[in-house]
UniProtKB/TrEMBL annotation:
NCBIfam families: hi_GC_TIGR00026 (TIGR00026). Transmembrane segments: none annotated. This is Nitroreductase family deazaflavin-dependent oxidoreductase. It catalyses: oxidized coenzyme F420-(gamma-L-Glu)(n) + a quinol + H(+) = reduced coenzyme F420-(gamma-L-Glu)(n) + a quinone. Belongs to the F420H(2)-dependent quinone reductase family. Signal peptide: none annotated.
Amino acid sequence: MLYGKEHVQRYRETNGAEGHDWNNTTVLLLTTKGRKSGRPYTTPLIYQKHGEDHVVVASKGGDPDHPQWYKNLLADPEVEVQVLGDKFPARARTASPEEKPELWGLMTRTWPDYDEYQKKTDRDIPIVVLERVG
């Protein structure tokens, strides 16, 4: 089972042939810039398409704190996304309260554990919309 750095490496080496389809769902690679270091960090994340956008969830398994990648994109929303062999620049934004119910439903249909993660924490788990730039 692919996880973490190994997941990123195999995904990149195979243009997603290994790593895009994972546990009956789909995964993209999100690269953010470290808010302190300025270095690029790449995270494999479950995603779904919503129109032209890609949607991911900043769940961190229901941890009380946001994942590092989410904190990074709050500091700098200019990110890189890779879906299979397609790498593109994107702008990340947190879904609005009006958008969130529809997008939460989209994401829990693909990964039902998100509902359990939300029950484990008082933190309002953000949904992130990745909008292709250019």
